[in-house]
Design brief:
six-stranded mixed β-sheet; 451 residues; alpha+beta; 2 domains; elongated; single chain; two-stranded antiparallel sheet; Glutaredoxin; 60% helix
Length: 451
């Protein structure tokens, strides 16, 4: 292999490999921290990881798409383009299907495949490398039959052919293992009860087994791709005289079809990311309402458009906003307090913030106080608030008294009336109209309870 042969392809393999290594590392770190989240430091790291992942994942996906595109520069005879184009087409399908689910209100189970998307892309890339290794082995082996320049040169050619034959065999085995795992994932998707039964064998044991299986698969993938990259670097140092078989191989060239498919996949990914912030919150709220329906008069289930919550006294709670004077909850009696638990990394939280800003502005002279509470650090909250133009008080902290001590999902909003009674609890993103309606309900005095 000459130095100028497959130069773009080599770079593409390296870029894809580095991107998928970081992506797999994020997944494994997320699982590992979840297993030990009972420790406060693990919880903090997990929250930090959840904050950076939405920004890092698109960058890694784009890097992997670029890597696949560069592998398309290999000659058509190598057969790698069909694998690369398959990766692009799968990406288009995987990224546009959620948009279809959100817009058509299809079952949430249709989104369960997303956890296996990166696995499918990795397995297809292994197939691409196996095809490329087979083609290179054939070129290197041709010198053994056609050359005749002496024993020494033939021995080198034999060594090259053996290296690529070994890589081809290893990649074939890895590809088969990956296909088995994809088949198992599909089986669990088709039969969700089977997946539930496996999980119920022991939640902790199942998670540990999955963690180590993924760790082993990632190690096998990285080891073989490193071998592939090393073989390409070592064999590319041959001169024209020592490597005649590569003289007829054309230089790397990207064809328009590959560029179009790569751009289409990148566009589909961008559309999916936008849909996650625009369409997904509304979709998931409808799914939550559908799941948490309440029994109607006829015994069936109807959609629960507002969360059922028995009024209870709000606790005495001291809050220190990131900017401003301390707030005492019991000193806000006479006002309607909208207490919003949220996070900067949460798309539904971000979606409802403009409505909370509007509620705060409109209610400033009407006795309405909006307070945002996040367990993130103050610099993160302050930067977010400044960028979004949030004027109402923002509080950083955790460990609040009941019933604010266990927030199972964000955003969660409590509406407290002028007598210090918590009148409603809203789980999930809400609109300005819903917030106003809950505030008006809180203005109506509670009926006295009969002894």
């Amino acid at each position: 292999m000459q130095q100028q042969s497959l130069s773009l392809t080599r770079r593409g393999i390296t870029i894809f490999h580095r991107g998928i290594e970081v992506y797999a590392g994020l997944i494994l770190l997320n699982i590992g921290l979840s297993l030990v989240r009972q420790y406060p430091i693990a919880t903090q790291f997990l929250l930090a990881l959840q904050r950076i992942s939405p920004f890092l994942e698109p960058v890694l996906h784009l890097a992997m798409l670029l890597g696949v595109l560069l592998t398309c520069a290999a000659p058509a005879e190598s057969g790698t383009r069909k694998w690369a184009h398959t990766i692009f087409l799968f990406g288009v399908f995987a990224w546009l299907l959620p948009v279809l689910v959100y817009t058509m209100q299809l079952p949430m189970s249709w989104l369960s495949y997303r956890s296996a998307t990166i696995l499918v892309q990795a397995v297809l890339f292994v197939g691409l490398l196996q095809q490329l290794a087979s083609w290179i082995r054939g070129i290197e082996a041709s010198d053994i039959a056609d050359r005749g320049d002496g024993v020494a040169v033939s021995a080198v050619d034999k060594e090259d052919a053996m290296v690529w034959r070994d890589l081809e065999s290893r990649l074939e085995s890895l590809f088969r293992i990956g296909c088995i795992l994809i088949g198992a994932a599909l089986l669990f998707l088709i039969y969700p009860r089977l997946a539930l039964q496996v999980a119920m064998l022991g939640m902790g044991v199942t998670a540990i087994v999955v963690f180590f299986m993924l760790l082993l698969l990632a190690a096998m993938f990285s080891r073989n791709v490193y071998r592939f990259e090393k073989a390409m670097r070592m064999r590319s140092a041959r001169t024209d005289t020592d490597d005649r078989s590569w003289r007829a191989i054309p230089t790397d060239r990207l064809v328009p079809a590959s560029i179009v498919l790569g751009a289409l996949a990148a566009t589909a990914m961008g559309v999916e990311k936008v849909a996650n912030y625009t369409l997904a919150p509304k979709y998931f709220m409808k799914e939550i309402e559908r799941t948490l329906g309440k029994a109607g008069p006829g015994g069936g289930f109807t959609l629960n458009t507002e969360d059922t919550f028995a009024p209870v006294p709000a606790p005495a709670m001291s809050m220190k906003p990131i900017d401003g004077e301390p707030l005492e909850l019991n000193q806000l009696q006479g006002k309607i307090v909208v207490l919003n638990f949220w996070a900067t990394w949460c798309p539904p939280c971000v979606k409802e913030i403009p409505d909370l800003i509007e509620l705060s502005e409109q209610g400033r002279d009407n006795g309405i106080v909006v307070i945002g509470i996040s367990d993130e650090d103050e610099p993160t909250i302050r930067n977010f608030a400044e960028n979004r133009g949030i004027k109402y008080p923002m509080v950083a902290g955790a460990g609040w008294p009941p019933p604010f001590h266990q927030i199972s999902a964000v955003p969660t909003t409590f509406v407290i009336d002028g007598d210090g009674m918590i009148r409603s609890k809203l789980i999930g993103s809400r609109s300005l109209e819903v917030f106003k309606a809950e505030v008006e309900k809180a203005r109506v005095p509670l009926k006295p309870t009969t002894p």
